[in-house]
Amino acid sequence: PETGRGQNHAQLQNQSGADEYGCTLNELKTLMEFRGAEGIQKIKECFEDTNGLCKRLKTSPSDGKCLNERPEELDNRRAVFGQNLIPPKKPKTFIELVWEAVQDVTLIILIVAALISLGLSFYKPPGNTGHSCVPPEFALGGGGEEGAAGWIESAAILGSVLVVVLVTAINDYTKEKQFRGLQNKIEQEQKFATIRNGQIVEISVADIVVGDITQVKYGDLLPADGIIIQSNDLKVDESSLTGESDHVKKGLAVDPFMLAGTHVMEGSGKMVVTAVGVNSQTGIIFSLLGASDHDAEKLNFTFFSDEPTENSRADGQINHDHGGQEMIPLTERVGDAPEEEEGEETDGEPKKKKSRRKEQSVLQAKLTKLAVQIGYGGFFVAILTVVILIIIFCAEVFGKYNQEWKSECTSVYVQYFVKFFIIGVTVLVVAVPEGLPLAVTISLAFSVMKMMEDNNLVRHLDACETMGNATAICSDKTGTLTTNRMTVVECYLAGKHYSNGLPKHSDLPANVLQPLVTGISVNSAYTSKVLPADKEGGQPMQIGNKTECALLGFVSDVGRDYESIRQDITEEKLFKVYTFNSVRKSMSTVIQNEDGSFRLYTKGASEIVLKKCTSILDQSGESIKFTVADRNQMVKDVIENMAGNGLRTIALAYRDFPADSPPDWEQENSVVSNLTCVGITGIEDPVRPEVPDAIIKCQRAGITVRMVTGDNVNTARSIAAKCGIINPQDDILVMDGKEFNRRIRNSKGEVSARFHGIEQSRLDAVWPKLRVLARSSPTDKHTLVKGIIDSTVTPVREVVAVTGDGTNDGPALKKADVGFAMGIAGTDVAKEASDIILTDDNFTSIVKAVKWGRNVYDSIAKFLQFQLTVNVVAVIVAFLGACILKDSPLKAVQMLWVNLIMDTLASLALATEQPTDALLLRKPYGRNKALISRTMMKNILGHAFYQLIVIFVLLFAGDVLFDIDSGRGLSLHSTPTQHFTIVFNVFVLMQIFNEINARRIHGENVFNGVFTNPIFCCILIGTFILQVLLLKCTTKNSLAVVLWVIIVEFGGQAFTTTGLSLSQWLWCVFLGMFELVWGQIVSSIPNKNLPKFLSVSIGKSEPEVDPALRGEAEDTVPDLTDQNLRRGQILWFRGLNRIQQQVK
C-alpha cells in the first residue's frame, strides 16, 4: 500500500508538471543523466535548445522573471518538482545513546560483579548460616537487621551505574543538540546568487526551485542540478561524483550539464535549475543508499559542511552522522590525482591505501599516551589487590584455622571472592580519571561556543586545542592583515603619474578614457558592484571582488557610470572571457563591435601584463611603441614607487582584432599578447589598525608570522613592515615565488617522486628566515607549509596554521595543522578544506584562537592536576586498606559517587576558565613537552602526601582521637560506622578545597581571578556555606555540598555512611580547609630542587615520524582502536575514543 501511494503521488506530480509546465519531473531527471554531445542532442530533441527549456519551465533566461505571475508560484514549483532538501538520517534516540553509554568496560564489570554479589546476598546454605565456614573475624553480617541488608551495597552500585549511564547519555544528547544548533546557524548563512524578476538576490540554497536562473562563479559549490544558458571559460571539478580529477569544461556547445555537489574551479556563467533535492543526481544516489553513514562514506562525496543537523539539508549538504562534528573527507585534494586504492599495484609493487586521518593533535597524542600509562598502572594495582586479598583470606581460613573446603560453604566463599573482586574494581575505578573525557568535552564545547563570539567558527574540535601549540602562521595579506576596503589612490595614465589626486574625465584624452572606462566596466565580474552608502555620510558598499570594486569606484571618480556601459554590453554579449586564476594572474574579456571586429580588454598584475604589451597610449591618446627599456623604466619609476607605498598595482590594456581574420580564441597565449597599455592603477588596502599589536602578541608568544601573498614583492614588503612582520634590523628573507622555487628545487629543476622535485634540505635553508613570500601561487603556499611541517631542523615539529580564501588554497589548508578560511571573501571550497572559518576575515581573530587553544590545554592540565591527586590518594588508600584491613576504607559505591559528582563539577569548574592575555606571554608547549610538568607533579605529590597522612591517621587513630567505635576489621555487611564515615567525609572535603589549588598550574596565585568564572564561584560558595547547611539551610548554588551532606547524613546503608555530630563536622571542615594552607607551602618549594624525571614521559607524545617515511604514509596516525591494547587496561578508553571521534 505504501509503495502504491508513493507511485500514485509521483504520477500526480508528473501529470501536474506536464499540464502546467510542459515538462515532467521524470523528463528533467532523465535529461540530467546525459553528458556532453549526447546530452546536447537530447536537449535539441526534447526542447530545441536551452531557451526552449526555459520557455517550458516558464522562466525568462535573461532576467529570471517567472512567466506565471502569481504569489504562490514558488510553492507550486516545490510541490511539482520538489524542494531543495534531502531528508537527513534520523538522529540517534536517547535509548540508543543509553545503550552506547552502557558499553563501557568498567561499567560492565561493575554490573556483573554487583549482580553476582546481589544474588549471593540472598542465598543461604541449608542448615548453615555461614559462621561455621569462616573464622569469627571473617563472619558474615554484623547482626540484626543491618547484617541482613547485604544486598543494599550491590543495589547501590547498580543505582550508581544507572546514574552514570544516564548522565553520559544526557550529556551526549545535549552535545548533539548543541552541534545541530551550530550547524543550523551555518546553514542559514549559506546563500547562492539567483536572478529573480530582473534582480540578483542572495537566497538560501534551500529556497532554490526548479526554473530559477542562478549565477555560478569561481569557487562555488553547486546547490542543484542545472543546464548552462551562458558561460565564460567555465570549468568544473566533478571528482566528487565521477572520481575523475580533471576539470570538465562547461558550455552550451561542449557540456551544459551542471551537477549538485560539484565545484566551479574557473570561470562564471548562468544556469537554469532543472533538479533539486532528492531529484538531483546526487540526491538520487543518496536516496537509493538511504543516506546511511556507511554507504555515504563509501561514496566519499565532498560537501561544504561537516556537522550533523536536525533539519533537512539543502542538496549538496548531505547529512552523514549525528554523533558530533565528523568531517566528510575530500574525495581528493584539489589538483591532486586520485589516491591509489588498496590492492592496486604501482611499478609492480602493491600500494597500501592512504589514510585521510590527520596526525593527532598535541593534546590528543599526550592524552592517549597518558591513558595507556594510567591504564597499565591501575590494572596492575587492581589485580595485585585482588590477589593479595584472596591469598590473605585463603591463608587464614585454610591455613591458620585449618578449615577444609566444604561444599555447603562454597556460596559463602564465592561471596567473599566477589567482594574482593569488587574491591579490585574499586581500585581500578579510582585509578583512572574517568572525568577526563568529560572535561575534554566540556572544555572544547565551551571554547567552541565562546570562539563563535570571537569570530571563529570551529568546524573541527581538535583545531581549537591545536592552535594553542601553533608555532607558525602563514597568513594572506588582503582582507586578513588589511581592511579589504580597496580604493584607487594613484594612477599612471596618458604618460602622467597622478600621485596626489585622481584625474577627472576632462583631464584625459578620449582615446584613453574610452578603453579605460569600458575596459574596467566589462572586464570585471558583473557580480562586482559599488552601491550607494546605506546611511548618510557612510562609504559606498562594495559587493563582490574588492579589487574590481576599487576599479569600478575609480570609474565613478573619473566621472563616468559603469552601469550604463553594462546595460549596453550585457553579460550575454561578451564574446569570450578568460577569467582570473592563480596561473594567469589576469583577466581578459573579448567583445564584438558592431562592425564585426573584436576588442580584447585585459587587467591584471602589472609586471605580467606589461610583459605582453608592445605599445602604450601617450599624452594625446595615440598608441606609441613600448620597448623593453620603456617597460623597465616604468617598473622602476611607477610600479616600484607605488609598491613602495604599499599599493597593489594593476595594469590595464587592450587589443583590437579585425572582423575578417579573427584568431583561434582557444589559443590564449597568442590572443593575450601584443597588447596596448592603457595605464597603471595603484590600489590602497590599508592595514587593519589592530593588526600590528596582534603581530607583536604572536611574536611574544613564540609564533612566527609569515605573509604569503600574490602581490608585488615591494607591496608585500611595505605592508609587512607596517604590520610588524619584518623589522629593518632582523636577519630575514623577503622573496617572490620565482626566487623561492629557484632556491628550493634541485639544479635540474626536475620533479622527483618523493616531494615534487623539492629538496627538503634546500627548503630548510630558506623557510626559517622567510617572512614574506610574494607573487606566490597556491602550489608555492602548499610547498612552504609541507616543507615547514616535514622539517627536522627545529628540536620539535612546527605546528603550522594557514589562512586561505581561494579554491586553490584547498591543498595548503588541508595540509596545515589548522586551516583558516575567510568567512566573507572565502570560497565554498576553501571553507570546506578548513578547520576554522574566520567570520570577520581578521587576523586578530586568529590570535584569539591561539589564546583559546592554550586555554583549552591549560584547562585540561588543571583538571588532570586535580583529578590525579584524587586518584593517587584513593588508589593508595584503597590498596593499603584492602591489604591491611582486608577491606577498602573507600567503598565501590562511594568512589562511584565521588567520580560522578566530583568529576562532573570539577570538570565544569576547571574546564571553563576564561583565557587571559598572560597565556600569550609564554612559548608553545610543543609536542615533546610532558603534559604533566614538574610544577604539576610537585602539586600532585605534595597534596597527595598531606591527604594520605590525614587519611591514614584517621584510619588507624581516628577512633581514639574522636572517641568513637573503630570501623576496622568489621565483618561483611556490617553496620556503617562514624569512623569510616569521617574518613570518607574528610577525603571528599579535601578534594573540594583542593579544587582552588588546582586553578593554577604554573605556580601563580590560586586566588587571582577566582571571581571571573561564575561556575567555579558557585562551587566555591557551596563549600563556604557548609556551616549554614549544618543549620538546615540550603542554597541553590551549593548543590554538590547539599547532595554530599545528604549522602553522609541520610545515605545510610546504601553509601555505607552514618550521621556525624557538629564537632565531627567542624573537624572535617578544618582538615579540608587546611588544604589551602598546605597548597601555599607546596608552591613555595622551588622547582629547581625537584628531579627532572618527575615530568619525563608522563603523557609525553610519541616521537615524530621520520619525514622520509611521511611520503609513504602521509598524515597517517594509527587509530587508538588499532593498537593491541586490552580494553581492561584502559578503563576510560571508550570515553576517550568517543571524544576523539568527536574531535576529528
UniProtKB/TrEMBL annotation:
Q: Where is the composition biased (Basic and acidic residues)?
A: 310-324
Q: Where in the cell is it found?
A: Cell membrane; Membrane
User: Tell me, what's a Pfam family for it?
Assistant: Cation_ATPase_N
Ranges where the Cation-transporting P-type ATPase N-terminal domain occurs: 46-122
Entry-linked InterPro entries: ATP_Ca_trans_C, ATPase_P-typ_cation-transptr_C, ATPase_P-typ_cation-transptr_N, ATPase_P-typ_cyto_dom_N, ATPase_P-typ_P_site, ATPase_P-typ_TM_dom_sf, ATPase_P-typ_transduc_dom_A_sf, ATPase_P-type_domA
- Indicate whether Secreted appears among the record's keywords: no
- Which superkingdom is the protein from? Eukaryota
Q: Which residue intervals make up region (Disordered)? A: 306-358
EC number(s) on record?
Answer: 7.2.2.10
Matching entries from SUPFAM superfamilies are given as: Calcium ATPase, transduction domain A (SSF81653), Calcium ATPase, transmembrane domain M (SSF81665), HAD-like (SSF56784), Metal cation-transporting ATPase, ATP-binding domain N (SSF81660)
Q: Which reaction does it catalyse?
A: Ca(2+)(in) + ATP + H2O = Ca(2+)(out) + ADP + phosphate + H(+)
Protein task: Catalyzes the hydrolysis of ATP coupled with the transport of calcium.
- Name-wise, this protein is Calcium-transporting ATPase
Q: Give the species.
A: Ciona savignyi (Pacific transparent sea squirt)
Q: What is the lineage of its organism?
A: Eukaryota, Metazoa, Chordata, Tunicata, Ascidiacea
